[in-house]
Amino acid sequence: MAPKKTKKTNGHNANLPKGFVLARTRLDGFFERTPGNSVQGILKGSFQVPDKFKRDGTKTVFRIEVTAGETQLADGELAQPGAVIGLDRTGYTSAIDDFENGSAIFVRYDGLEDPEREPSKANPHLFTVGKAE
């Protein structure tokens, strides 16, 4: 019997056992810091990426599956329900650290503390973060 041909997806072998589908490995985009932009969704964990501006050289990105509404992405597109977006961990979004994976969450970007000045530790990006009861 000839070996089965293997389907390639994004350069990865998609030959999985019966009943399995290829796991998502990429985000659909990153949350855009535009005042009023929000995301309502399900927390799907987080991951670390290199960041030359952080002391330890890494930053945390939360994975959120959009469940309602539209969310503006950094590339100018809108994420609809079902999309998985990335949201950088900041002082204000660090509250998400306490949420369990699978929690329903809401995040809205409220702008800079002082919109007339450049962002800095003294002029942070402000977010409203909530968790479903």
Give a structural overview:
With 133 residues, the protein is mainly β. It has a single domain (26-131), classed as OB fold (Dihydrolipoamide Acetyltransferase, E2P). 0% of the residues lie in helices and 41% in strands. It is built from no helices and ten strands. The chain has strands spanning 8-9, 12-13, 29-30, 38-50, 58-68, 71-72, 78-79, 84-88, 104-112, 125-131. The chain is globular and about 55 Å long. It starts with 7 loop residues before the first strand and ends with a strand.
Main attributes?
133 residues; mainly beta; OB fold (Dihydrolipoamide Acetyltransferase, E2P); six-stranded mixed β-sheet; two-stranded antiparallel ribbon; 10 strands; 0% helix; globular
Average pLDDT rating = 87
Low-confidence stretches: 1-11
Strand content: 35-45%
CATH class: Mainly Beta
Q: What's the helix count?
A: 0
Q: Order of SSEs, N→C?
A: EEEEEEEEEE
Largest sheet: 6 strands, mixed
Helix residue percentage: under 10%
Approximate shape: globular
Number of domains: 1
What class, by secondary structure content?
mainly beta
Strands of the largest sheet, in order across it?
A: 3-8-5-4-9-10
Radius of gyration, in angstroms, nearest whole number:
18 Å
The number of strands is: 10
CATH topology: OB fold (Dihydrolipoamide Acetyltransferase, E2P)
Instruction: Measure the end-to-end span.
Output: 56 Å
Short description:
By secondary structure, the chain is mainly β. 0% of the residues lie in helices and 41% in strands. A hairpin with a 2-residue loop joins β1 (8-9) and β2.
